[in-house]
Design brief:
It contains 13 helices and twelve strands. The strands form four sheets. The protein has a six-stranded mixed β-sheet, with helices on both faces. A two-stranded antiparallel ribbon has the order 1-2. The protein has a two-stranded antiparallel sheet with strand order 9-10. The chain is globular. Bound molecules: iron/sulfur cluster and zinc ion (2 copies).
Amino acid sequence: MKCTVCRGPAVIDLRRHNANFCGDHFVKFCRDQVARAIHDHAMLRPGERVLVAVSGGKDSLALWDMLLETGYDVDGMTIGLGIGDYSSASTDAAVAFAESRGVHLQHVDLRRDYDYDIPTAAAATRRVPCSSCGLSKRHLIDKAALDGGYDVVATGHNLDDEAAVLLGNVLRWNTEYLGRQQPVLIERPGFPRKVKPLVRLGERETAAYCVLRGIDYIVEECPMAEGNRHLRYKDALTAIESESPGTKQAFYFGFLARASERFQGDVEAAQDDLKPCARCGSPTTGDVCAFCRLVEQASGRDPVPVELVRPGRGRR
Ligand code: SF4
Ligand code: ZN
Ligand code: ZN
């Protein structure tokens, strides 16, 4: 197998691009794909301050590395979710990366700063762990970006993630979510701009990028992810992609080009009645935002161990 660019020995084949790459040209390919996503979707402007949401996994660390290498002014933010060893290893990977590059990493810890963690929140709310986890992450990243004066939040969602979310939204015709499924969410009062520069890369590619760049990332999946629908959609699309390379890209980018605008009306309708939360000031439709209600419900309880929470379903 030879590199499509230099004819040297290739280390990876990309069937959807009908190309093979050596290490150097693969790293260049990944950075070019990120640069193209940033350009095509007007994600970042020169001189802007970027906050990357870092989980310690391959996607967020590859993204942070690529943005730094491209010359952007990027800090990281990581959230200690309190999901046992998984969370400690995630934080360790993020800290090790920040130290190796001499860059700033902001660390919020749910237990230390808000007196709850995700397993305890899942038990308290009797909802799937990913529900309180997603809510906590969104709120705290928005808050960190606004408080810290950042222009934009970048997240490590890749093509596999976006195609799987799209499939889930289409299967249930979640029209409001379909309207929001853009690689850029523009800033609004109380919300920073959010961008997904990895939408042109799959997770196999971000993993290979990390290996080639010597980035240590956490390989284990979150133990709470088991049984979650998103993973089932990902597996289904990966099975189709293996028979028909390019399907995920055609599905996601075809949606952006031909269908996403049709759902904008549903998004605007949902944004009409936002007002500041009585406790924290974040935009919300009620008097108190969902994050403040979660903190009220989950904080001050005895911690629930990870083993007692049934992934994807709530408490055992
Ligand atoms: Fe949070 Fe669910 Fe992701 Fe685990 S799988 S980190 S609980 S959103
Ligand atoms: Zn090459
Ligand atoms: Zn609030």
